[in-house]
Each structure stands twice: as structure tokens, then as C-alpha cells.
Amino acid sequence: MTASHTNAVRTRFAPSPTGYLHLGGARTALFSWAFARHFGGTFVLRIEDTDLERSTPEAVQAILDGMAWLGLDPDEGPFYQMRRMDRYREVIARMLDEGTAYRCYSTPAEVEAMRERARLIGAKPRYDGTWRPEPGKALPPVPPGARPVVRFRSPLEGATHWDDLVKGPISFDNAELDDLIIARPDGTPTYNFCVVVDDWDMRITHVIRGDDHVNNTPRQINILRALGAEPPRYGHVPMILGPDGEKLSKRHGAVSVMEYDALGYLPEAMVNYLARLGWSHGNDELFSREQFVEWFDPRNLSRSAAQWDPKKLNWVNAHAIRQSSNEDLAARVAPRIRRRGGDAAAIDLAAVMDLLKDRSETLEQLAEGAMLFCGPHQPADDTVRAEVLDAAARALIADFAARASGLPDWTEAALDALIKDMLQAHGVKMPKLAIPLRVAATGVKHTPSIGAVLALLGRETVLGRLTSVL
Ligand code: GLU
């Protein structure tokens, strides 16, 4: 692309606000966003809210939240189709004037009968053009009181083709396309028509969307041409499949982007993972948002459906966790600890993150692990005590407590050194000392490195707990 062209790139994400932002929608948004960012263009957000029965303000908010969480900030919008009704009516009036659209008084029952007749002769069910004006053709008399729909006067011959950014050349015979209704009897515009007027008015140069829209594309191109507009380039991305090869759905687990926030995934990991679902840059699996933007090339969008892989997402998330600073993780995990009833105020949470980050795949796992330090202390139950804290173990704990109280520095290194000394002095192996210490100091048998755990808990807490089990 030349420089002047690259500056003009304008993409859009055009969700229908009928539910949360799902993974497929988020991925489409991500590709459109990256395309615009890569070429220094403009990313537009348009809310397609004309389906009044299914659109809700909560769904609009859920989409905005999901995009904000992923960091997909629009440069323009959100624009709401419901606020653009006057504009659609204006374009419909213009098309009626110019003869590229016409009023059709056929009743739904009549249209159904036409379709049925077509089916009987093995033809594609369609409107038969009764009200379509043609040179020299006399139209039926307008039924009194009837309210017409407005139909697009679709070309009858030839083909409509485009070079799809993802799928390559696609062609539809115009004979296959019906004279689409663009306005209902009450004058409200229909879905495909609003999309066309918006893409035109918003000067969209590249449309990236799900391939469930491929069949709409020739209709939209024809209407744009009838308006004298240059159609954008289209790229249709295949859907996301579940691990079982079926279309990804709730059956496969969480499908709302914000659920992944709740489950403890980092937005940068989601961006990384979603980007790789149907797009690639060589063999690169782990990359930053900046690298993704830099590398994004629509030619590397895959033609085949991508498969959701929760294990890989966890792997990407674990990597993002390891890449994060301890302070950043602490800030993200603190509210999750509070939600569990924990209190991180008395603890060096960043140090806890440092201890746990290599073994955690999600922020929720980090929070769970941090409860060892932030939750109310739960002494080991009787079974564990009976099993672990026998007389020999108690003797070890008593000696450890005595020596530990005299440590000049309460640090992991000092505690590790003390444990080593104790093993030598008592001639025991590590588990003989470490497990009783864990049970006495934390209430559980398994924890991260005992020296680190004791250091983080602090001298007073540790000595208090050791004394209370003795
Ligand atoms: N509103 C449509 C949807 O949510 C997308 C339309 C488009 O991208 O052209 O499926």
C-alpha cells in the first residue's frame, strides 16, 4: 500500500447488542482494530441496535466493557444505528427518486405464494418482481390503504464478485439475489441496508467480519454500487470451533469475554490467544499487543476454522503472569483476595506474587495461593495433627522455634540456613522437619518453599503459631 492509501484505512466493529461480547465477536473486533492500528488508520465502533426486541442497554454496556478490558479502544464511535434513522430514511427516499428502489405492495401471503410456485418448479424461492418497474411495463394498480415495503432493484444479470481478504475470490450470480426489502411497511430500514449506509457514511475501507455474513456481502455491494459508492474490501473470518469440532458455544465453557476476566485471565493473554485463533505470524505463539499490531497482515488470516483450546489459553496466560511485575500482579490479585474474605494489608503481597507466579496459570490461582498468607489462619485439623505432629515432630518444632526467635534477620536466606543447620544437628531429612513446620505454621502439608513461606508470614505470626501447637 502507498503512504496516502495507508493513512486512509478505516475499519469498524459492528456488534449487535443482544448479549455479552462473546469470543468470536471479540476476535473480529481484535482483527479490525489491529488492521487499523497497523496501517495508522481509524477504528470505528458501531452498535447495530435496530433489532429492538433483542437489543438491550445492558448488552451495549457489556460490549463496551469487554472492548475496554481487551484494550480495543475505538477512534470513532460508538455510533448507534437507532440514532441514524433519519439518515436511512433520507437515503431510501433518494433511491426511490433515482429508481434504484421501488415500492412493493405484495402482501406477505402473496410473496409466500410466489416462493411456493418457484419451489414447485425447482427454482430458487424468491420475490417475482410484480412491482419492479421496468421500461414499458405497466404496474398493477396500488391497492387502496396498503402500506408498501421498499425493495432494492437488484441487478438481474451478471455476477457480483469480490476478492475476499481471507477467502480469496468469491462470486454470486445476480440471478440468485432477491430484490431485497430495504424498508418495512412502517418505513423502518432493514438490517443489510443500515449496514450499507453506515459503511458508506463512515467511509469504511476494510470490513472484517464473521463468515456468517458472506451471503449478505453481494447484496451490500450491489446497494453500495447503486448509491454510487465504492464498496470496501471485505474479509470474512471463519468461525471458532470448540475442542470437539462443533461451533463454539456455552457447552464448551465460558464464551463471554468478561467471564475470562472473572476466571483470572489477563487481557494481554486473551489478546495474544485470540489473535492466534485464525491468524499467524510464522511460528510465533507468544507476543505482545505491540508485536501483534506490528505484524498484523490480513493475508495471514486463516481460511480454515480455528479451534478453541483451553489448555493453550492457560499456557499463554501462565506466560503472561510470569512476564508481569510482582507489583502489577499484586494490584490485580488484591481485589480477588478481598472477595475471598482475605486481607492483604499485613503482608508483602508483591513478594507473595513472586513466590507463586511460576506455579499459577490464572489470577484466581494466585489469589487462592495467596490466601495462605492473607486468609484467616486455619489450624490443621485433628487427623493431620495426629498424623504429622507426633512427639518427634514436636521436639523438632520446639527446637526450631527456640533457634528462630534468636535469628538476627527474619529472611528467607536466614530461615533456609537455620533449617539446614537443624537437619544436620538432628540427623533428619528435609520432609521430617519441613512437613511438621508447614502444618504448624500454615495448617496444611503442602506449601511453596518453607523458608520463603515462613519469611513472608513474619516472625511474630510464625512463632505464635508454632508455640500454640506445642
Ligand atoms: N451486527 C452484525 C453482527 O453482530 C455484524 C455486521 C457486520 O459486521 O457487517 O453479526
Structure description:
The chain has 470 residues and is mostly helical. The protein is built from 20 helices and 12 strands. It has a 3-stranded parallel β-sheet, covered by helices on one side. Strands 4-5-8 form a 3-stranded antiparallel β-sheet. Helix 2 links the parallel strand 1 and strand 2. Helix 12 crosses helix 14. The structure holds glutamic acid.
Please sum up the structure shown.
By secondary structure, this protein is mostly helical.
Low-confidence stretches: 1-6
Q: So how many helices?
A: 20
Gyration radius, in Å: 32 Å
| Main sheet makeup | 3 strands, parallel
- Total domains: 3
Strands side by side in the biggest sheet = 1-2-3
Under the CATH scheme, the architecture of the largest domain is 3-Layer(aba) Sandwich
Determine the CATH topology of the largest domain.
Answer: Rossmann fold
Q: Whole-Å distance between the termini?
A: 76 Å
